[in-house]
Amino acid sequence: MTVASGGVSTAGAGFFSQHEGMLEAAVQALSTRTYKTPFPEIPSGKIYGETAAADGQTAFDGYLNASFVLDQPGSDGEIGDEQSPFGMALGVRYPRSDVNALVSAGRAAMAHWRNASIETRSGVCLEILHRLNKRSFELAHAVMHTTGQGFMMSFQAGGPHAQDRGLEALACAYREMTHVPSEVAWEKRISKTDTETYAKTQRIVPRGVAAIVGCSTFPTWNTYPALFANLATGNAVVIKPHAGAILPLAITVKIARDVLNEAGFDPNLVTLLVDTADAPETKQLVTHDDVRIVDYTGSTSFGSWIEENATQAAVFTEKAGVNCVVLDSVDDLKRVAENLAFSICLYSGQMCTSPQNVFVPADGIRVGSETVGFEDVAQAIVGAIDKLLGDPKMACEILGAIQSEATVTRIEKAAGALKVLRPSNTIEHPMHAGARIHSPLVLQATSSDPEVFMKEWFGPIVCLIATSDTSESIELASRVARESGSITGLLHTTDPTIESNAVAALTDVGVPVCVNLAGQKLVNHASAFSDFHVSGLNVSGNATFCDSAFVANRFRTVQVCRPA
Amino acid sequence: MTVASGGVSTAGAGFFSQHEGMLEAAVQALSTRTYKTPFPEIPSGKIYGETAAADGQTAFDGYLNASFVLDQPGSDGEIGDEQSPFGMALGVRYPRSDVNALVSAGRAAMAHWRNASIETRSGVCLEILHRLNKRSFELAHAVMHTTGQGFMMSFQAGGPHAQDRGLEALACAYREMTHVPSEVAWEKRISKTDTETYAKTQRIVPRGVAAIVGCSTFPTWNTYPALFANLATGNAVVIKPHAGAILPLAITVKIARDVLNEAGFDPNLVTLLVDTADAPETKQLVTHDDVRIVDYTGSTSFGSWIEENATQAAVFTEKAGVNCVVLDSVDDLKRVAENLAFSICLYSGQMCTSPQNVFVPADGIRVGSETVGFEDVAQAIVGAIDKLLGDPKMACEILGAIQSEATVTRIEKAAGALKVLRPSNTIEHPMHAGARIHSPLVLQATSSDPEVFMKEWFGPIVCLIATSDTSESIELASRVARESGSITGLLHTTDPTIESNAVAALTDVGVPVCVNLAGQKLVNHASAFSDFHVSGLNVSGNATFCDSAFVANRFRTVQVCRPA
């Protein structure tokens, strides 16, 4: 712990100069918005070190069936019951902490942190990101065995891509805090001969303690933007992970606390509140009088409850997306079907960006100069899914495992109630016996079945909906977004007028639209520094990763004015 | 109405090129934050034109006892019962409009407006500001005879300073919308030999219809920031003026509708919803499903009701300030008392920035090298008030009139309940018989009377509170801010340690602090482009004029991605 006399940490300042180049490049990337992944996405020993993979495995194994030590206040006993979707019980035991104690400790810890300079706080955040990045293999295992993602996705989305999103939010907060100079000389002519001069100083003042409610599928990716936006702007953070996906956030909290401590700050700026499905503590946390910021990722119903009830706080939500695909006309049906099949299979539709409803005219679509009927379009998609999942090992890597048993029940229920174009089947994982792996269920419905397409079927459940024509497809996709919320939209058309109408209708209701994807880019992907994730313009959420609105309301600029 | 084929208004584009320099300078001023009033604050014929004063008077007289024509939809009959605090009934009759009709018309009008370019929308806003500025004399009379402000203040705060605040919000919105380029070429290397390239376009999408709830004391100054932030970002606006201060906003709405119409847009982008104290319509408006943004200025209780109930909207509030002064030590008591007396008298304490509680140690304060007792400090302040108000004509100009009869009742009640250091007296206005003019009531209490200083006494009511020492004064001022909300703070001390402690304690709870004011600058003044008005960190409000957070949540950036 190295604290200079002015209360400014020299370690914090050192972290800033060490990582300043990365922050500057990130701020720049916010406005160019080209491809950028500051944290390398390839899990290669050449990048991460030859022993990184083995070290990560060892670290992960060390957590199993053991106590996870966090040394945070108000703790009494242990808690935790995570089950890997790949079959095993993790057996990690976390401290059981008291909500009030964590919030109070966070408030107390802010007294020093909020007075540190923007650079010092940003330096600490950059160092946390840097250390998280070095531990990406360890985090990958933790993400994999809580969310059910395949290893590659766990590494990328749980590691570097999550870190990219954290850096993006930090850069955005840094930009917004530095719009205003810290000192200003203000002069006003008050008569022909006299001028009054004042020295104004501006101070960044944080809102207060922040609560982050994590989800079960992307515990790090969905949490890091809020974590770094809050810390950078001077707030303390209590992280409440989903009871089924604690470990990735526990590791994150431990790393953050270590860095804060080394930089001379109170580690209680970042704490972990673990609860269980049987005794949830989220409501108590997010409506706590001293909690002034809430970030939430999860179901629409509980997110809406928070929006309506946590009125003492600034609330940022990412809820569910009922995402639509509009198929009108294509050049190459095979490539389109392959791209769509990958989007459908990736992590078994458990991404909030995964497509669910595929609207196809009952009379079929144009493919080049021909018309291909609805049945053949359906068969092309089903065939592409079958082909993609042909090799069980590859299938398991792409599909991952089903995070929650409730999703398996949902698959069974949907299959029993609707016309099935492709049944869901179970797949044996070559390495993890007992892994919960189910291939996508493809259903068929029509535009007269709103109870099917207006509703979220979370998991590997996709529905092809026969419409009277593409105009109706667009209208329905737009209605789904408006009434049920959509996070992504995919359109295939070779007709510029239809493209323009569909893009207008969908963006009007806050759906970003991918048009004619037929290569490796999937509609599911949202890249930091280029793609805005969730628009906040429909019920799928009220906030965006990452725009000014996501960061600017987490702090205020408060002025002091003195005669010069 | 001049609309180019692409739906982009040529008049709108023309307005932008005509006023672009003003916008650029305003964006620049947001980051330098030095003195800036783009709209001249001196009501001089040399600036505004030799006939401007007379034209303004004539225009105002023309509104009296007549119908105010707005030609907006859903109107049925007339409404309006404004009484000038200077004595006369205005007799202006406004259209009585239906909430649902105005909200629907706003939604419909947005279809074209949101598709206009950022430049076109900004050009229209700049032209509205330009025309408002030319009509500043007319607006001054309207503000004076609804709010009770003296003429000079009505001109400045109701005219150019309000226009400055509108321009500031517009510039801030422009900056935030243009952070992101409209087109991006995005390339990702997908293998050693292959790269995929996508063309991404970003569209600014507004949230929806916005409601602005005006107040009775600063109808234009408190409304323009939201009006221009909303319009610039593509939203429609329904303005609900206070039933006692309609005319300044009716004139504003008329000007905005004229400019919108000339630029080829639907004038229903800006409409006026007039109600009465007996049949208020604010709750219905702000909780309307299609209202997605609410800006409110007014009482804390109703503002808090909106924050808790208008959960379908992004809510921005400016509520009441119980503002404190901490007197510890001064160099020149006379100059300090004169400055404070002016702050107390200006517009009879009816500014949300006016001081209310003056904390003074019971043992007195240091003045230079001497100690001056509490009674003498009190006498210096009372004496300075008496001197400032010595000439009745000047007194009337400074005090203005009391906007609401309820404030007069409050003065009487306070005088009967507490120890009076200076009684409030009525003053005859030399030109307006029947004007409601009451000089400040100065009361005395102690730190054991929280029921006095924790509560807002809106109007010309000031209380000197004897404390055990300056530490207690600081503690109480900080508690008032935290629990009752403060918008401004004033500190007088010659001790650097006390200054630093007080500044920290007050800014921590979101109170901007003026230190040692003894010249013409008053704690009440909040200048556009330099001072942030309301911090949003205590119960005095949740939003600030004007930071990124004030504008960034009024729109989203929605992306379209196509293979290049």
How would you state the average pLDDT of chain A, rounded?
96
Helix content of chain A: 40-55%
Shape of chain A: globular
Please report the total strand number of chain A as a whole number.
Answer: 20
Low-confidence stretches of chain A: 1-7
Please describe the biggest sheet of chain A, giving its number of strands, its sense, and whether it closes into a barrel.
Answer: 7 strands, mixed
How many individual domains of chain A? 2
CATH architecture of the largest domain in chain A: 3-Layer(aba) Sandwich
Quaternary state of the chains: homodimer
List keywords for this structure.
disordered N terminus; Aldehyde Dehydrogenase, Chain A, domain 1; homodimer; Aldehyde Dehydrogenase, Chain A, domain 2; five-stranded parallel beta sheet; seven-stranded mixed beta sheet; 20 strands; 20 helices; 564 residues
Describe this structure in words.
Two copies of one chain form a homodimer. With about 575 residues, chain A is of the alpha/beta class. Chain A has two domains: about 10-320 and about 545-564, Aldehyde Dehydrogenase, Chain A, domain 1 (3-Layer(aba) Sandwich); about 325-515, Aldehyde Dehydrogenase, Chain A, domain 2 (3-Layer(aba) Sandwich), CATH 3.40.309. Chain A contains 20 helices and 20 strands. A seven-stranded mixed β-sheet of chain A has the order 15-16-17-12-10-18-19, with helices on both faces. A five-stranded parallel β-sheet of chain A has the order 7-6-5-8-9, with helices on both faces. In chain A, helix 1 (about 10-30) crosses helix 5 and helix 18 (about 470-485) packs parallel to helix 19 (about 495-510). Chain A starts with 9 loop residues before the first helix and ends with a strand. At the A-B interface, helix 1, strand 3, strand 4, helix 19 and strand 19 of A face helix 1, strand 3, strand 4, helix 19 and strand 19 of B.
